[in-house]
Design a protein that fits this description.
17 helices; about 45% helix; disordered N terminus; TIM Barrel
Length: about 450
């Protein structure tokens, strides 16, 4: 089947048009409206992870939800800031509409990484006082390479934490949604965790409408797992969770770049959180609609990278100087690249690269690019804001396609990750969905 695809930007954001033929399947993707803390919330939902000191994407995008970390807000802030958060609540403190949900993580991972034993009572009290709509339990993640003994120990610690939260929820009957976190890299451990949590729900007469899958970043990291296998394992585990929890909202931590977001939605994941919009910006990368993440500079690439920046023109609010966060500073200069700071290392590589240019025109273009880079303003912030705009627009496109019954065609024409295509992840997902009887 041949597909014709057109991309355009408009005032409302990115839109994409298709010429469509044939029968279309949605995978397990679905649009649902659930009540969360007395609010009507539409899923699938994309959460933008925010840390203090970072741009606030809800100011300049159609950000659907905000994800914050209790460690960042509790341990890394002054007493005056903490007092302000607790007095105002997160919606007022962050100047977020009350209709927009806020999800607060426990910060358990950050505590453990810094050698701090999480205090369940103090963390829960802070989470509740912040007036967030969803709060994640303190969890104890582990690597796929951990020994079975370590995995079982961390699972037991997480279950004790879930029980602490369940008991509190049972006693006070608050509308705030408690989110248990499941860490497992194999189906047997996943089933063990889900069964244990179900017993806690029954014991304390509570219902956890949202379940979160943790430790997924370990699974999709190219530095840890073999190329194709990591996506196949992700698919298998998410589908196993869907089979065990057919009526629950499934949230996945930390792997919410657009490419992975499409795949997770196809697998029936309802809730996806991402810090990639800022993380990629900090590390000299930017997300290009329809192309994926492109490195602007790193230790292995030249200033230009493989992407043809001279042909790229972005009309998002950041690149056209209309972003209120940046006060008119643009991320893109004319039709060229997202601005990057000219560090000494990049400057040295630029000079070596320039010496290898074959044509006068190429040298002139490189010199022009250097000038734009040299006088770029805003550091990594414009890149991060640009990424947030594109992430938000991509989610809007995906949901529109889902509502029209065109989601499978949408993702097949949108997956820019070459590895996804080589691994045929959607074909594998279809096969596993059918084998597991989930259609």
């Amino acid at each position: 089947m041949s597909h014709q695809k057109e991309r355009m930007f408009c005032e409302e954001g990115l839109t994409r048009a298709f010429c469509l033929k044939g029968d279309l399947m949605q995978g397990l993707a679905r649009v649902t409206v659930r009540e969360i803390n007395n609010k009507k919330v539409e899923f699938p939902l994309q959460w933008f992870t925010w840390y203090t000191g970072k741009p606030k994407p809800w100011i300049f995008t159609d950000c659907e939800g905000i994800f914050v970390n209790a460690y960042n807000l509790f341990f890394e802030q002054t007493n005056a800031k903490k007092k302000e958060i607790l007095e105002k609540g997160l919606h007022s403190y962050l100047q977020v509409s009350e209709e927009k949900p806020i999800f607060i993580d426990s910060g358990g991972f950050q505590c453990l990484r810094r050698g701090i034993q999480p205090d369940l009572k103090r963390i829960l009290e802070f989470q509740l006082a912040s007036k967030a709509d969803l709060i994640a339990v303190v969890d104890f993640p582990f690597s796929p390479k951990a020994s079975m003994q370590e995995k079982l120990l961390k699972m037991e610690q997480t279950l004790r934490s879930i029980e602490f939260y369940a008991k509190f929820s049972s006693e006070y009957r608050l509308p705030t949604v408690i989110v248990p976190v499941v860490h497992a890299h194999e189906e047997k451990l996943l089933e063990k965790m889900v069964s244990a949590i179900a017993l806690l729900e029954k014991k304390y007469d509570v219902d956890f409408p949202v379940y979160a899958l943790g430790s997924m970043v370990y699974m999709v990291s190219a530095t840890i797992t073999a190329s194709f296998a990591r996506y196949y394992r992700l698919i298998d585990l998410v589908l196993a969770a869907k089979k065990l929890l057919p009526d629950k909202i499934i949230h996945v931590f930390g792997v919410g770049s657009p490419n992975v977001m499409y795949l997770l939605m196809y697998l029936g994941v309802d809730s996806i959180e991402t810090f990639g919009w800022a993380g990629h910006g900090i590390h000299y990368s930017t997300y290009i609609a329809g192309e994926g993440t492109k490195a602007l500079a790193d230790r292995k690439r030249s200033l230009d990278s493989e992407f043809e920046w001279e042909k790229y023109a972005c009309q998002c609010v950041v690149c056209t100087g209309r972003c209120p966060v940046l006060n008119g500073k643009c991320a893109a200069y004319e039709e060229k690249c997202i601005a990057i700071p000219l560090t000494a290392e990049i400057k040295e590589k630029y000079e070596k690269w320039k010496a290898t240019c074959d044509t006068v025109a190429h040298k002139e273009w490189v010199e022009e690019l250097r000038e734009k880079v040299l006088y770029a303003k805003g550091g990594w912030t414009p890149r991060a804001c640009h990424n947030a705009c594109v992430y938000s627009s991509e989610m809007k496109l995906a949901k529109n396609a889902l509502k029209k019954g065109e989601f499978e065609l949408f993702i097949e024409s949108s997956l820019s990750n070459a590895l996804f295509r080589k691994a045929r992840v959607i074909d594998y997902a279809k096969k596993r969905i059918q084998e597991m009887g989930l259609y």
